[in-house]
Design brief:
Layout (H helix, E strand, L loop, with lengths): L14 H11 L8 E4 L9 H16 L3 E6 L9 H13 L8 E3 L4 H13 L3 E4 L3 H6 L18 H13 L8 E4 L14 E5 L13 E3 L1 H11 L4 E5 L6 H10 L8 E5 L11 H9 L14 H7 L3 H11 L10 H15 L2 E2 L1 E2 L2 E6 L7 E7 L9 E7 L1 E5 L19 E4 L4 E9 L5 E9 L15 E2 L8 E8 L26 E8 L11 E4 L3 E5 L8 E8 L12
Parallel strand pairs: 1-2, 2-3, 8-9, 10-22, 12-18, 16-19, 20-24
Antiparallel strand pairs: 4-5, 5-6, 6-7, 11-21, 12-15, 13-14, 16-17, 17-18, 20-21, 22-23, 23-24
Bound molecules: adenosine-5'-triphosphate (ATP) and magnesium ion (MG).
Length: 564
């Protein structure tokens, strides 16, 4: 453990940390750091959101500040309580706490309305009667200025009256909008009199039927930040072009308190993964995966069920860092993080997937013994589990070769290997069936080589094994990557990301597993020795164990481009 570390030099801070450090040094935010994570409750969170959560809550922790959870619930037609609940569960599971600061943009609808009235009174907003199509047709292009709305210069009183009628429900959907009066010739399209409110007679999951006008994202977001006292409003790069509008609103409102500052970073992109909520929804709705928490999904609930730990995801977010330019992170990094975490923390177990009988001819018939093996050799405090051993065992079929190449250190006729935590054995002969397949491997064991005893006998290979008489049978779901290609968004014309789905992303097999796993409950992790990391799935039941493969022990995916 490293203790008493000297304060990090400024250069090792990422650019967000540098900005915050400067703000604190120059007292631009009154010594405060207050961030927020602002999900729209219209889907389940994914690994990209996890990055944003770790960043926002992480910065607050690092600088002794606070981070709010704010639901950006301004679109009543797409949002549901189910999503709110799942988001809260996911943030908590990742290890972060918003304490009593659970906010909703909809909490501010009245205040936002009053802010809009302020802008109308200043002549900075107007009610426009163009349709959505007309507004878009008159917006121009970045090179060609837009056309001003014929309603742009109506008087304040008329605007106030119409805005009031919009709110009261007198006017039908789509007939009127409130627009900010900025600049129809601005080279920034977002500044061309953006819509602030639209009429939508729709039920809202929190405000019910109280409102029939709803604020647009750009209008709601910055003002919500202000109302919560956010100092650093961190968002992804696509909002960079929105920043002038973000600042315009805050300036025009003549606000008394400290104004938030928007800062952008590059969103997380991950190879072999899609992150668009819309596309993830398609996978769920079309039954291409088994729900939002399908272990192949990049959702936080999917990763959790797959067996990823909160620590591994935080480690990943940390190692990814923050960038100012778009980039793609190798999914191998995420897999590396879970290996690193579970190598330190997961108990070991032996499981045989493709068994072949191994018979120890010189071991007494009917006898068995229990051999201790470390629960986790990386953790000296983890103790031992007991492995039943007898004359009749199984090993992996692929650990035996009748005619092996030179560097095959596993079992072959005449060869000697160690059975993990047990004895050294020698293969004497094999029995085959009519097809020529090996059905029994007959061996001699050397009692003096019992694990833990001093012995001069040395061997190059160590195999895992199970004693079937005392073992449990388990269902194992072998997950592979959901997509066959690194960039599933890249498709030929007329195709979409679904053509890249990996048809072999799930194989269900049986395994024979040592008895220590017998009573394992859902969520419990294991390293199956020499094989991979696994977690007990929620479908598990007494007498019917179900494991998910998280990752193989080493990077060895077969269905990837690299290995074609
Ligand atoms: P959409 O806007 O299409 O619904 P979204 O992914 O932007 O999807 P939000 O709920 O608005 O969803 O996102 C909440 C927060 O998470 C935002 O601050 C957003 O910038 C951040 N975020 C979303 N995707 C990523 C990503 N891939 N990497 C980092 N942050 C992300
Ligand atoms: Mg968004």
């Amino acid at each position: 453990m490293k203790e008493n570390t000297t304060p990090e030099p400024k250069a090792s801070l990422n650019f967000l940390e540098q900005i915050i450090t400067n703000d604190l040094e120059n007292n631009t935010t009154s010594g405060k750091v207050h961030t927020r994570f602002p999900p729209e409750p219209n889907g389940y969170l994914h690994i990209g959101h996890a990055k944003s959560i770790c960043l926002n809550f992480g910065l607050a922790q690092k600088f002794n500040g606070k981070c709010n959870l704010r639901f950006d619930d301004t679109n009543p037609t797409k949002e549901e309580q189910e999503y709110v609940d799942s988001i809260k569960e996911d943030v908590r599971w990742l290890g972060f706490d918003w304490e009593d600061r659970e906010y909703y943009a909809s909490d501010y609808f009245e205040q936002l309305y009053q802010f809009a009235v302020h802008l109308i009174k200043k002549g900075k907003a107007y009610v426009c009667e163009m349709t959505a199509e007309e507004i878009s047709a008159n917006r121009g292009t970045p090179a060609i200025p837009g056309k001003e709305s014929p309603w742009r210069n109506r008087g304040v009183e008329e605007n106030l009256d119409l805005f009031d009628r919009m709110r009261k429900g007198d006017l039908p959907d789509g007939s009127h909008v409130l627009r900010a009066k900025v600049d129809m010739a601005s080279p920034n399209m977002h500044m061309r009199d953006p819509v602030m409110y639209r009429i939508m007679h729709a039920h809202h999951h929190r405000t019910g039927n109280d409102w029939c006008i709803y604020p647009m994202y750009d209008w709601a977001h910055g003002q919500s930040d202000y109302l919560e006292g956010i100092t650093h409003s961190i968002c992804t790069l696509e909002f960079e072009v929105h920043r002038p509008l973000y600042e315009w609103f805050l300036n025009e409102l003549d606000l008394p308190n400290l104004k938030p500052r928007q800062i952008e970073f590059a969103r997380l992109n991950l190879s072999y993964t899609i992150m668009s909520k819309r596309k993830l929804l398609t996978l769920v709705q079309e039954g291409l995966v088994n729900g939002w928490d399908d272990p192949r999904m990049p959702t936080i609930s999917g990763l959790r069920r797959r067996g990823f730990t909160p620590a591994s995801i935080r480690m990943f977010a940390d190692r990814v860092g923050v960038a100012k330019r778009e980039n793609v992170i190798e999914v191998g990094l995420l897999e590396h993080c879970i290996r690193e975490d579970l190598n330190k923390n997961a108990p070991r177990a032996m499981a045989v997937f493709n068994p072949v009988k191994l018979i120890i001819d010189n071991y007494p018939e009917g006898h068995s013994e229990e051999l201790p093996s470390p629960v986790n050799p990386e953790d000296p405090d983890s103790g031992h589990r007991m492995l039943p051993f007898s004359k009749n065992l199984v090993i992996e079929r692929e650990d035996f070769m009748e005619d092996p190449p030179k560097k095959f250190f596993r079992l072959a006729p005449g060869a000697e290997v160690r059975l993990k935590s047990a004895y050294i054995i020698r293969c004497d002969y094999v029995v085959k069936d009519e097809q020529g397949e090996v059905t029994e491997i007959h061996c001699t064991y050397f009692p003096e080589t019992k694990s833990g005893l001093p012995s001069d006998k040395k061997v190059k290979g160590t195999l895992h094994w199970v004693c079937p008489e005392h073992a449990v049978e388990a269902e194992v779901r072998l997950y592979d990557r959901l997509f066959k290609v690194s960039d599933p968004e890249e498709v030929e014309e007329g195709e979409d990301f679904r053509v890249h789905l990996n048809p072999e992303s799930l194989k269900v097999v049986k395994a024979i597993v040592e008895p220590s796993v017998k009573d394992a409950i859902a969520g419990k992790h294991y390293q199956f020795e020499r094989n991979g990391y696994y977690v007990v799935d929620k479908d598990t039941q007494p007498g019917n164990l179900v494991f998910n493969r998280i990752v193989p022990l080493r990077e060895s995916w077969v269905n990837t481009e690299k290995n074609k």
